[in-house]
Design goal:
The protein is about 75% helix and about 0% strand. The protein has about 230 residues and is mainly alpha-helical. It is globular and about 65 Å long. The two termini are about 35 Å apart.
Amino acid sequence: RFPQRGEWVKLIVTGMLNIGAFQALLFIAAYRLPGGLAAVIGAIQPLLVMLLAWCVDRQRSPWLAVFSAIAGILGMAMLLLSPGSVLDALGIGAAFLGALSMALGTWLSRRWALSLPIVALAPLALLIDPPLHQVTALQVAGYLWLCVAGAMLAYGLWFRGIGRLSPVAVSAMSLLSPVTAVVLGWIFLGQKIQGMALVGLIVVLASVLSIQRALARQAAGAKTKKAP
């Protein structure tokens, strides 16, 4: 459906937080920090969503979910960080603000119960973005892949998940992005996953699963209390 007049502000705000500001900050962090360090800082997103839900909505997450989110950060560090990582203040700040932007956008999308198509802002993007010049066929194929699979499909599923799950459960799934990259590198590029990195991979996967189970138990308990 087409957004109503009162929904445009919410759509623009969540679009900026989840996509516009987040992507810009992510690229700044990626350019100025090792990819592993940027991913570890971004892994604080589930904790930020928990904090927002507790401070504003007075919804406390289970302690198991909190400890699992912390374990996920530690697991990400074991999986991705390498000795001698260069620390850059601007990059660290961008990575933290990016995580905060995405966390706030995820929480607001659930709080406002948005079920709006992300393509609603496409005409605005076409008007604002500068035209591309001298684009090859291969580059066009790359842009189409990024736009369809990396944006429309991915964010469509992301917002659908926010509408059906708690924002904490959805934000925890973000930990799987760098894990997926590592696994794809192992499958297609022959990159090794061993030692501390393998332990970190297992810890991250276990933390995501633990967060989902803890939140599912909390939701089931809440339904039991409401039942007559």
